[in-house]
Structure formats: structure tokens, C-alpha cells
Q: What sequence folds into this?
């Protein structure tokens, strides 16, 4: 799945339920990040496997194998990389694929690493080709060839690197060239969190933020958090504001529901845009199939906004399907909006596909 669908910086980052980090998230996330594996909620398999990898490396007194973390934004990839550094008692350097456009940028970072240091490379799939090729050798042999000069007189000067651990993160594991993927000793795929796990994230964050919340209040926020801890933490902060201004500061189910009603995040985590798309599909086009362009005009949004910002979550929730003939609502979409589907059209009446393409 293309998780980048949900990361469009111009749109989803501004939404309360967008998975990409906004400015406020960045400011508070440091305080909410779990510091070691035991504090990291959920992702049991990944945690167990990583625990083994790190313990074994520690016992051998070696640097850990390179680690690739894949999964949607906001699921904890950056957090895990910091935990790896903490568990290995090693410093961490953080950079990202788009920041490394030239092989020289990468050479400068690699040559300044300390022995055992963790290099966290976010969005590793967005690194330039020459940098990527330099990384192959660095990962395998802890060596890079620095090219000095240009044209026929250019020479490659080999540079030895201290052993380090690369932690690569990507929302698009499928885009990584196989030679790069193969150089990671351990690959972990991060899944969306279930509501119980999100409740634990919310209780933990509430404790750190010194907010009183009961079990039902946490469950209400968890159900609207789209399987993503970053969104859970953001909704918690908005509910905290509401509880403080409109009530006694304590978060209950009623307070959480009322607060998120103000922000138009519904019981299943859909926001105004998601619901507008579904409503148009159901009310104007009888549930489809309808073409993407037509649907976009109906909700007054760009095609790309509907396709890249609203649809991925609706598809994931089983509310909308993308078919060759156009977008189609599922029975769950009718139920979610409290509407009754029209009678099935009689076969052969020529109505099918009226709104397609
Ligand atoms: N398993 C978890 N337990 C508790 N909190 C978590 C967990 N995973 C993520 N979080 C919280 O969610 C926030 C976002 O996590 P993080 O920045 O690690 O996500 P990410 O996958 O790196 O996102 P991006 O791809 O956008 O960089 C952090 O503040 C962290 O506190």
C-alpha cells in the first residue's frame, strides 16, 4: 500500500486526523516518546524480534545489524530508532533521504560517525541514486570511495568508516531497490495499532501530560485515532483543551465525544472531508460507481485531494472501493452514515456505469 497517500504535506498535515507530523506535534512528541522497548506499546512481533537482535549484538560487544523499519507515518519508526540507540547505549544521528541529494552529503555524514553510532535515515526511499550507491558499500564494508576531481582526472579515494548501524525508515518499502533492501540484517513492518493498544498509548500520554482520563474516555479517543499513535496523541491534546475549558479537566467518554464532535472527527475517525466524499458518493450517485473527477467536482476539491487525502483511509476502513468502473460505496458506508441503500437496479436496464470514469 502506498502510505505516502496520507502524507501530502499541503493537505493532510493540516488535518486533525492527518498522519504526518505538524508543528505542534514536533514540539510535544519528544516528551511523549517511549524511551525503551518496555515502554513501547504494541507491535509485539517487532518488539520481540528487535529485542533479540539488540541483546545478541550487546552480548557480542558488536554494533547491531542494519535495521529497516517500514510502515505508515506516525506508527513509531522514529521512536523505535531512538529506542535502538538507547538500548545500544549509542549516540544517534538523524537525517532523511530528501536531505541527502548528493553523494558528498552522505560521505560527510558517514565520515563523521562515531564507532557504534546509529544513523537514522528517514524516508530512505527518497535518497538520490548516487547517494544510494555509496550507501551500499558503506553498509556492507564500512568503506566509501570519495571521488576527487572531475572528468578523466577524477580519482576515487577509499575512506574507512567506523562500524555503525543504519536504521532506515520508509513508508514505501516496495520502492527500495533490492540491493539496498538486501543489505539490512533485520526488516520490521509496523502495523496499524488496534484500539486496545491505542488506549494504552493514550493512558500513557495522559499520565505524562498530567491529564486525568478514565477508561471510557481513552476508548472513545482510541476509536477515532485511525490506528495511529500520533493521531491519538493529537486528539488527546484537543480533548484536554475542551475538558479544561468546558468541564473540570477530567476526560470521560462524554467529554471526549463532545470535544471531537466540535472538531468534526466522528466515531470512526472520519473528518469533514472524508464524510463529504462518502456523502456525495451515497446521496448524489446512489453509491456509485462514479468516476474520481466527477466525485471531486461534487465535493469541490481537487482530484488529488480526494484520491490522496480522503480515499486511502476510506478504503482501509472498507467504506469505499476503487474499481475499474469508478468509486463504489460498500454496505458499511451506508450503515456508517445512517442511510438506506437504494433498491438494486434490475439487470440490463442500462443504468450501470452511468457515472463511471
Ligand atoms: N508504540 C508506541 N507507543 C507509544 N507511543 C508511540 C508509539 N509509537 C508512536 N508513538 C508516539 O507517536 C508519535 C509519533 O511517532 P513517530 O514520530 O515515532 O512516528 P513515525 O513512524 O516516525 O512517523 P513519520 O513516518 O511521520 O516520521 C510519537 O510522539 C510517539 O510518542
A:
Amino acid at each position: 500500500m502506498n502510505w505516502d497517500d496520507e502524507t501530502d504535506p499541503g493537505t493532510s498535515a493540516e488535518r486533525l486526523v492527518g498522519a504526518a507530523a505538524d508543528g505542534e506535534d514536533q514540539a510535544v512528541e519528544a516528551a511523549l516518546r517511549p524511551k525503551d522497548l518496555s515502554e513501547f506499546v504494541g507491535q509485539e512481533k517487532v518488539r520481540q524480534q528487535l529485542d533479540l537482535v539488540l541483546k545478541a549484538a550487546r552480548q557480542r560487544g558488536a554494533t547491531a545489524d542494519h535495521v529497516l523499519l517500514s510502515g505508515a507515518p506516525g506508527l513509531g519508526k522514529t521512536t523505535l530508532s531512538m529506542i535502538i540507540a538507547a538500548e545500544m547505549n549509542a549516540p544517534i544521528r538523524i537525517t532523511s533521504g530528501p536531505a541527502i541529494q548528493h553523494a558528498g552529503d552522505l560521505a560527510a555524514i558517514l565520515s563523521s560517525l562515531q564507532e557504534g553510532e546509529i544513523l537514522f535515515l528517514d524516508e530512505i526511499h527518497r535518497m538520490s541514486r548516487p547517494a544510494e550507491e555509496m550507501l551500499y558499500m558503506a553498509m556492507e564494508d564500512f568503506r566509501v570511495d570519495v571521488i576527487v576531481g572531475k572528468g578523466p582526472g577524477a580519482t576515487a579515494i577509499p575512506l574507512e568508516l567506523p562500524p555503525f548501524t543504519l536504521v532506515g525508515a520508509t513508508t514505501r518499502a516496495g520502492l527500495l531497490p533490492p540491493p539496498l533492501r538486501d543489505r539490512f540484517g533485520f526488516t520490521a513492518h509496523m502495523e496499524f495499532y488496534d484500539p486496545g493498544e491505542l488506549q494504552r498509548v493514550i493512558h500513557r500520554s495522559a499520565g505524562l501530560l498530567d491529564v486525568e482520563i478514565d477508561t471510557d474516555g481513552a476508548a472513545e479517543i482510541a476509536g477515532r485515532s485511525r490506528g495511529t499513535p500520533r493521531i491519538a496523541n493529537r486528539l488527546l491534546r484537543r480533548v484536554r483543551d475542551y475538558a479544561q475549558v468546558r468541564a473540570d479537566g477530567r476526560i470521560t467518554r462524554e467529554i471526549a465525544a463532545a470535544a471531537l464532535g466540535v472538531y468534526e472527527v466522528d466515531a470512526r475517525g472520519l473528518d469533514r472531508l472524508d464524510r463529504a466524499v462518502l456523502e456525495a458518493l451515497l446521496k448524489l450517485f446512489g453509491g456509485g460507481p462514479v468516476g474520481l473527477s466527477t466525485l471531486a467536482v461534487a465535493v469541490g476539491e481537487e482530484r488529488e485531494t480526494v484520491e490522496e487525502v480522503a480515499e486511502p483511509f476510506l478504503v482501509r476502513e472498507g467504506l469505499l472501493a476503487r474499481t475499474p468502473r469508478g468509486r463504489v460505496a460498500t454496505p458499511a458506508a451506508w450503515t456508517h452514515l445512517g442511510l438506506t441503500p437504494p433498491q438494486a437496479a434490475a439487470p440490463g436496464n442500462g443504468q450501470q456505469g452511468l457515472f463511471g470514469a
